[in-house]
From TrEMBL:
<feature type="region of interest" description="Disordered">
    <location>
        <begin position="1"/>
        <end position="26"/>
    </location>
</feature>
<dbReference type="InterPro" id="IPR005064">
    <property type="entry name" value="BUG"/>
</dbReference>
<comment type="similarity">
    <text>Belongs to the UPF0065 (bug) family.</text>
</comment>
<protein>
    <submittedName>
        <fullName>Putative tricarboxylic transport membrane protein</fullName>
    </submittedName>
</protein>
<dbReference type="InterPro" id="IPR042100">
    <property type="entry name" value="Bug_dom1"/>
</dbReference>
<dbReference type="Pfam" id="PF03401">
    <property type="entry name" value="TctC"/>
</dbReference>
Length: 354
């Protein structure tokens, strides 16, 4: 599906004029020292800014799908914390959905050298790039500048509040008996985390992958679809569903974490007899060709946000786990994730592409 819709949209994004360019950064040590001396307000000096300006000004965070998605929630939370700490006081968050995230990747590629643009991304973006039939998106992903891996998040199995399924065992029994009659929703594209998790669940209960009826809903469109019972069940993220589960609008049957989550009212798959653990992740990329000083400015700003009490509260509230990694560690992780997704796609016989 991503390949079918992607061509013209990605070409249009690649022609979009570039945004503002970042100025000259300062060393990471200086940035972090300033943060401590300023009580958490990071003084980042960029070329063209007066010496009394504080923070990384003009930073934009791009979200590759619609409002209400996991990427959107993470990007807007990060923007709020960056502003609160003074690390980046005027962050703009904007959504550029299309082709599973590869439209945003095209835009990122076109903004080469821009140290004031970041793309919130994760396993779904990697999956979309590798599933892209045009072959364009993989080089765009490979060329991007890794900034930081931020969080990990388990997936959840949820149904509508009026679903006939009150227990996971009941749902899986019905699904195994007649998988083609039960539509399953998710908000990730083919080879993204929701579908990857669903296929692993199918393997665990003996449902052939080719008989799984998976429907992708973009970003915030999934939750209304679940409430309207357009799907028999759905795979989604903890942060995207927690408020609706707590309000009684959705029923959570399982979380995919290794251990129970203190603030999420559902047992793990392992507690219910399935030896299956699955974790999604999110991170930040910058355009290709961002120089070392600008990379350090971005990384240092994110590090200050990550060390704040506000960020720690956001982790707890959204069921996220800190997974902070930068530099070569994050670059190696991205390469490993790409290889894993590629192997999954090759081994699926097309079942992941819908």
């Amino acid at each position: 599906m991503a390949a079918r819709e992607g061509g013209r949209a990605m070409e249009a994004a690649a022609r979009t004029p570039s945004g503002p360019r970042a100025g000259r950064g300062v060393s990471r040590r200086t940035l972090l020292t300033s943060a401590v001396a300023g009580g958490g307000a990071l003084a980042l000096l960029a070329a063209g800014l007066r010496s009394d300006d504080r923070g990384l000004r003009g930073l934009r965070l791009m979200v590759p799908n619609t409002a209400g998605s996991g990427y959107d929630i993470t990007a807007r939370t990060l923007a709020e914390v960056l502003a609160e700490t003074g690390a980046a006081p005027d962050v703009q968050v904007f959504n550029l959905p299309g082709a599973g995230g590869t439209v945003a990747l095209a835009r990122l590629f076109n903004e080469a050298g821009n140290g004031l643009l970041g793309l919130m991304m994760g396993l779904g973006t990697v999956g979309a790039a590798y599933a892209d039939g045009s072959g364009q998106a993989r080089p765009w992903l490979a060329a991007a500048t890794p900034v930081a891996r931020l969080v990990e998040e388990p997936e959840v199995v949820v149904v509508s509040a009026d679903s006939p399924y009150a227990e996971l065992s009941e749902l899986l029994e019905s699904w195994a008996a007649a998988p083609a009659t039960m539509r399953v929703g998710g908000s990730s594209t083919p080879a993204g985390p929701d579908q990857l998790m669903l296929m692993r669940l199918a393997d665990a209960v003996g449902v052939p992958r080719g008989r799984v009826d998976y429907v992708n809903y973009d970003g915030g469109e999934l939750l209304p679809a679940i409430r309207r019972s357009e799907v028999a069940f759905a795979i989604s993220g903890v942060g995207e569903t927690l408020a609706q589960v707590q309000a009684g609008e959705l029923r959570a049957l399982a979380v995919t974490s290794g251990r129970p989550l203190p603030h999420y009212p559902a047992p793990t798959l392992r507690q219910q007899g399935l030896d299956l653990v699955f974790t999604n992740w999110r991170g930040l990329l910058a355009p290709p060709g961002v120089d070392a000083r600008r990379r350090e400015a971005l990384r240092a700003a994110v590090e200050v946000a990550r060390g704040s009490a506000r960020w720690r509260r956001a982790l707890e509230r959204n069921g996220w786990t800190d997974a902070f990694a930068t530099g070569q560690e994050f670059a190696d992780f991205l390469r490993d994730q790409g290889e894993r997704v590629d192997a999954t796609l090759r081994g699926s016989g097309g079942a992941l592409l819908g």
